[in-house]
Amino acid sequence: MAGASGNRILVTGALGQIGTELVEALRLQHGKDAVVASDVRDLPDHSCVTGGPYRHLSVIDANGFDKVVREEEIGTVYHLAAILSATGEKKPELCERINVGGTITVLEAARKHRLRVYAPSSIAVFGPDAPKHAPQVCSLNPTTIYGKTKVTGERLAMNYWKQYGVDVRGIRYPGLISYRSPAGGGTTDYAVDIFHAALENGHYDCFVKAETRLPMMYMDDAIRATIALMDAPIDSIGSARGGYNISGISFTAGELADAVAARVPDFTCDFRPDVRQEYADSWPDSIDDSMAQSDWHWKADYDLNALCDAMISGLKG
């Protein structure tokens, strides 16, 4: 595959939880003018809008996407625009339209304009039949619409690489925790919401059981992993290119509540599971990321204590 048509970076879904911090990191690395943020929302005071070039863009508008790629001389796309798990189950048609249709828009533009693409996956690709310590390679039989769209995304990534030579890469994100931007409608949002609730009113009603254990990651680690994967030499990227497992921290909701209580005097937490418990129960407890370690030397920095310290310090300002 020939070189990309431009050398600038486009980030879709830039006003979301991951996009906000990824745009900031990429602008620090490449310069603010080299990174074009885009979203379907218009938030004129958002840091991604005020800190560099911004385009209003829908990923299901193929002609509009193609136009932005040409006008902005894009060479690499970080495709973050998506409907997340809890929202996706409420609006399954929209979830499939955005998550699958939007990815096809990006990959078709990549094929046409010789772009490099980052298209993230998720631990939601695993179903209840997957081992609780999820390996890189196993059957992917998710029970959620969101998970099914992410399996399709991984397969599209491999197909476009094998058939057209599109250098597309992805990570299976665990639950992501950040204080800089709100969570976006995912099943793991409790791990963000609990910190806000603890500091604002000293109590949190958690929507999963205390014993629910899920893979999580502090956002700084996730951003670092994303950029490291895209910066890795192409010959180091193996068969997991569509969705590398990466491991951060695995803890129960009860362990998280205890860690918060150790830092916020008189904090209390009640566990009141709702439908999101079913989604959480279908996912693994922990992740085997040995392939990411081997292929591009991945290793997380944050454990539970470091994560809690960073969250509380960040929210207190």
Characterize the structure shown.
It is built from twelve helices and 16 strands. The strands form five sheets. A six-stranded parallel β-sheet has the order 3-2-1-4-5-8, sandwiched between helices. A three-stranded parallel β-sheet has the order 6-9-13. With 317 residues, the protein is α/β, with parallel strands linked by helices. The mean pLDDT is 96. It has two domains: 8-174 and 218-245, NAD(P)-binding Rossmann-like Domain (Rossmann fold, 3-Layer(aba) Sandwich), CATH 3.40.50; 175-217 and 249-285 and 302-316, UDP-galactose 4-epimerase, domain 1, CATH 3.90.25. The longest helix is centred in the first third of the chain and has 22 residues, at 92-113. It has helices at 17-30, 47-50, 62-71, 85-90, 92-113, 145-164, 190-201, 219-231, 253-261, 276-281, 290-296, 304-316; strands spanning 8-12, 35-39, 54-56, 74-79, 116-118, 121-122, 133-134, 168-169, 171-173, 175-177, 203-206, 213-218, 244-245, 249-252, 268-271, 286-287.
